[in-house]
Structures are given as C-alpha cells and as structure tokens.
Amino acid sequence: MLKTLAALTSVAALTSLAGCGNAVDAEPPAGLAGISVTAGGHLVIDVFVCRDKVDKIEIARDREGLKETEENPVVRTYTFERPMTGHITLDLARPAAGWSPQAPTTFEAGKGYIVTGESSKGYDSETFQVNVEGDGVDALKPGAVYTSDDDTTKLTAHTPAEFEKNAKKVCA
Predict the structure, then answer these.
(1) Separation between Cα atoms, residue 30 and residue 47, nearest integer Å
(2) Which residues lie closer than 8 Å to 138 by C-beta, 6 or more apart?
(3) Does an H or E element contain 146, and which?
(4) Which domain CATH number covers 72?
C-alpha cells in the first residue's frame, strides 16, 4: 500500500510539474538583431524590424555570474525619437541624430552582451537577440551583418540582403 501511495504521489508531482513546464506567453518576434562594423572600425547594431515597430535598442550583460533570480544588468538603452520598421542601424561610437543618449558604448573584452530591439510603448514584441562576446568584436569584418546562433556567442556573417531575408523569415 505504501509503495502504491508513493508511486501515485510521484506521478501526481510529475504531472503537475509537466503542466507548469516552461510555458511562456511569448509574442512573435518583431524581427532580428545583428552587429556589424564600419570600415573605420565602429561597431554598429543592426536591427531589421518586420513586425510591429521598434524605438529602443537595449544592450545588457549576459547571464555569466548571475543568480537565477537576478536580471541581466542593462549596460545602455538607446531610444529613437519615433518608432521605426525596416533596417535600423545604430553606430555605437557616434549615435546619429534622433538617438538618445548620444553617448558611445564599447564592449569590454571578457564580457558577454545581449542586444535586442524593443518598443517603449504600445507593442509587446522584441527582436530576436544577438549575443556578442567583447573579445570577438575585433574579428568582425566590414560589409557583413553578424547574427548569433541560439543562445551562444558564435557569430555568423551574412550579407545585408541575407540578414534582411533571415529577419523576414523570423517574422513569417
């Protein structure tokens, strides 16, 4: 009888856990984030938005060294004067007019970063993120937009046209 009760308790516990799972009420992505570099060596955040509109680019630290309950520390949030769609770029050394703050942002060697495009009002979705390792930005070549695979910092180079095509697939 005790074995039967223990077995039933285990099944009930597993069933209730399976019901909770990692269910997340996630909106479809607004597009895709990437990173590129200018011929002058400036890092540029590329965001292609094909669903909703985006007016924020957030740069946060990765999860390295954080407790499960801690949020990723935000390094900088750039906000544009109006929501945008299509291919959006932000030069991290010299943010263009319309972006605030106008302060530059650099990536430290040995640190990991997560970059997303988001909306500050009216829309719930954000772009798929790009994960960047501060050590890896020196290897970026001008003319390509780099995206990360899954939750890794391994960057894959794309032509700007391929980047836009991939973003549109994400939104489909």
Answers:
(1) 10
(2) none
(3) strand 145-148
(4) 2.60.40
